Structures are given as structure tokens and as C-alpha cells.
UniProtKB/TrEMBL annotation:
Lineage of source species: Bacteria, Pseudomonadati, Thermodesulfobacteriota, Desulfomonilia, Desulfomonilales
Similarity annotation: Belongs to the leucine-binding protein family.
Residues making up the signal peptide according to the UniProt record: 1-21
Residues annotated as domain Leucine-binding protein: 28-371
Keywords per UniProt: Signal
Protein name: ABC-type branched-chain amino acid transport system, periplasmic component
Listed Gene3D superfamilies: 3.40.50.2300
Pfam families: Peripla_BP_6
């Protein structure tokens, strides 16, 4: 019944085609699909907010649309972790009525959605899936990943960790999934960067089940490992839960360096508040204060006015997806799907074209290449947004790692 209601709503939305005043052209239809597992629930709403900001900036009265056509955004959220309702996509994208799918996915859903895009012949831009399947190029010509993948995360974390000078590293990491991939890849990368650095054996690593609530054993385990550095590859609600308990127990002493690749989400920072460890190394593919460009300032200002707090990287990547599609349409001169696929395959932008800065698509595997931001967690708490509604720690001592810092040969991302 739920699927039938969802399908009916989507068909009704696809039936209308508004256009700019004086222009009879049909609207450009973009489906924004979100499908997350429970651990990502804390950040699940952010991509939609970024997409809505893009529509506001590009559509009238602020913009002129795409080639004189407005964008009609169709938002679909799937709250099941069991399966993707294939009939929904069949109805959604058949009849050449949908021009683009932008997907905000947990890695559990990436392969299936990518396969559907290929079968339907609709370009698919994935904004924040970390899947190794995508990192290894196991997608197809219709799928483009503009989020950071496990390889980029792991190498940037390894560079950051190596710069601390700590000689032994362990991890708090999931048993499986992207977090585990990042730890496995991190071990390889840090040994390449700093051959004398030691990485913990598996019996010195805290492997965590998704949705864990008792962190005492894991914290005790890594504390006894003798490691000077801890790579924490948890995400979302798992990360905030762990940080809360670890802070209470006192794991984050001055002697240990803490590296948290997924700690740079505004939702995580706002949720953890004072329990974010001071001085921890925090990563993100975008930080709202890192780029003083006009497009970033416009994006940040519009976003804060609308939602009351600064944009996170989940929001920025969704915004970037719409902007990249706009550029592809301009290059092709229309919305022909095959033309758009060919344009996205080699798309490249300047530093002031997207909020996060310069971007290029690697044609071999359709992986986006861009800067990655790392910083240290501030001691002071910052009030942000209108009327200072949100209080959180922020990033300081920001370092931007460029694509040349993170360069990897295509396919050099296999771990063990």
C-alpha cells in the first residue's frame, strides 16, 4: 500500500510541466532520491536542503532556469532498508519524462540504483555514497559519483595522521561497510606515506556493530592497545553516540591524536556539541568557511536564511549536482540524455564555479575529483545561525588537500 501511494504521488508530480513566463518549454525534471540506513539518519535531511537551495538560486526570480526552463524538483525518500521499489523508478523515468536523478544514498543502495539508471537510460549523479563498488568503477556510463569515496577519505586521513608524528594507530570502526573499508585502506596508505608508522593488529581494533549503544568495551579495547592515534570511522548517529560515551570515560586525552573523517558534518557537530573532542582532526569534502568565493558566499547566505544554520557537505554536494547538470545542459545545448552523459564524463570547473571549489570528473570511472578539507576541533563553542540558535564547536587550522595531494591511479583502491 505504501508503495502504491508513493507511486501515485510521483506520477501526479510528473504530470505537470510549469515553464518560465512567456516560454512554452516543459520544465526540466530532476528526481531527488534519498535512501539511508539508520546510522545516517542524523544527516539524512541535509541533501534535500542543498537541492532546494539550488532550485531557489537557479529558478526565477533569482535565476533564469536552465536554458530558459525552470527546474521541477521531485523529492522521493525511501525509508526502507530492505529493497528499492523498482516499479517506482520504472514509472518515474519511463516515457522520457525525467531528465536526471540525483541520489543521496547509503552504500547499501548504490549498486541497485546505479543498475536502474543504466536500464532506464537516465543520468544519475550520486552525491554522497562512499561505496567501494563506485570507487572501483563498478558502475556504468550513466552513473557519476561527485561525493568523496572510501579511497579519497582514507588517503586524506592517512596524510593527516602521518603529519601528527604519532607512530602507532588503531581504530574504532564498523565490522563492515565503508567505515571498515576506510580503516583497511588507511593502513595501506599510511605505510606508503610513513613506512615507520605501526598499525594495530585486528585484536587491538574496536570493531563495532551498527546501532551499538554500549561503548564501554570498545573504548577500553583501544585504550589498552598502546596506540598513540585513533582513527574513528563511525558515521552519523553511531559517531555521536560513541563520542558522547568516550568523552565521559576520558578516552580523548592530550597524549592521543584522534582523526575523524566523518566528523565534519554540521549535523554531527550540532548534535555532539561540547562532546566533540577538542583538537581532534576532522575531515570533510566541504567546509562552509574554507572558500571565500562569490558562489560559496551566495550559497552560504541563501542556505542560512532558509534553514537557520550553515550548510554541511551533504547539502553542498546536492547543490553542486544541480549546478553541474546546468553546466552540462549549457555545453550540450539541451537535455538529451546521451549528450548529458557525454558532457558529465569530462566536465571540469574553475574554483569559483561551485561552493567547494574546482571540480573535475575522472572519465575512466566517473569519480569526481576535488579538494578535501581537514581541520582541528576548536576549544571554543560557537553560536551560529539567526538568533544564535545552534551552539557547536567549529574547525580551525584548516588545511585544504588538493587533488594532486590525493591523486591515485584509477583502480588503486582495493585495500586487502
Amino acid at each position: 500500500m505504501r508503495r502504491l501511494v508513493l507511486l501515485t504521488m510521483i506520477l501526479l508530480l510528473c504530470g505537470s510541466s510549469p515553464a518560465l513566463p512567456g516560454n512554452t518549454a516543459k520544465a526540466v525534471k530532476i528526481v531527488f532520491l534519498s535512501a539511508f540506513t539508520a546510522e545516517d539518519s542524523v544527516t539524512a535531511g541535509l541533501p534535500r536542503q542543498g537541492a532546494e537551495t539550488a532550485l531557489k538560486d537557479i529558478n526565477p526570480p533569482n535565476g533564469t532556469g536552465i536554458s530558459g526552463r525552470i527546474i521541477q524538483g521531485i523529492f522521493v525518500h525511501l525509508d526502507t532498508a530492505q529493497e528499492i521499489p523498482t516499479p517506482t523508478f520504472e514509472a518515474l523515468a519511463s516515457g522520457k519524462d525525467v531528465d536526471l536523478i540525483v541520489a543521496f544514498l547509503s552504500e547499501d543502495f548504490a549498486t541497485e540504483v546505479s543498475g536502474l539508471a543504466k536500464r532506464l537510460g537516465v543520468p544519475l549523479i550520486i552525491t554522497n555514497c562512499l561505496s567501494r563498488e563506485l570507487a572501483l568503477g563498478k558502475s556504468n556510463r550513466y552513473t557519476f559519483n561527485i561525493g568523496w569515496n572510501s579511497c579519497q577519505i582514507a588517503k586524506s586521513a592517512a596524510i593527516t595522521a602521518a603529519n601528527t608524528g604519532k607512530k602507532k594507530w588503531t581504530s574504532v570502526t564498523p565490522y563492515k561497510g565503508t567505515g571498515r573499508e576506510v580503516w583497511d585502506l588507511f593502513k595501506e596508505f599510511i605505510k606508503r606515506i610513513s613506512p615507520t608508522t605501526e598499525v594495530a593488529n585486528d585484536d587491538e581494533v574496536a570493531f563495532i556493530e551498527r546501532g551499538a549503544t554500549d561503548w564501554s568495551g570498545a573504548i577500553s579495547h583501544v585504550a589498552k592497545s598502546g596506540a598513540e592515534g585513533i582513527l574513528v570511522t563511525l558515521r552519523g548517529s553511531d559517531l555521536t553516540s560513541f563520542l558522547s560515551r568516550a568523552t565521559d570515560i576520558g578516552l580523548f586525552g592530550e597524549r592521543r591524536e584522534i582523526v575523524i573523517p566523518f566528523g565534519g558534518s554540521i549535523a554531527v557537530l550540532a548534535s555532539a556539541r561540547a562532546r566533540m573532542p577538542v583538537g581532534a582532526r576532522i575531515g570533510a569534502p566541504y567546509w562552509y568557511e574554507a572558500k571565500p568565493t562569490s558562489i560559496n558566499q551566495q550559497f552560504v547566505e541563501t542556505y542560512i536564511q532558509e534553514f537557520g544554520f550553515p550548510p554541511s557537505y551533504e547539502a553542498e554536494r546536492a547543490y553542486a549536482a544541480v549546478r553541474l547538470y546546468q553546466m552540462a545542459v549549457t555545453k550540450v545545448g539541451g537535455t538529451d540524455k546521451e549528450g548529458i552523459v557525454n558532457a558529465l564524463k569530462t566536465i571540469s570547473t574553475e574554483d569559483d564555479s561551485l561552493p567547494a571549489g574546482a571540480f573535475s570528473m575522472r572519465p575512466e570511472d566517473h569519480q569526481g575529483i576535488f579538494n578535501i578539507v581537514w581541520g582541528r576541533m576548536s576549544r571554543h563553542m560557537r553560536a551560529i545561525g539567526p538568533r544564535n540558535r545552534h551552539v557547536m564547536r567549529s574547525l580551525e587550522d584548516i588545511r585544504v588537500l588538493s587533488p594532486s595531494d590525493l591523486a591515485l591511479p584509477t583502480g588503486d583502491c582495493r585495500g586487502k
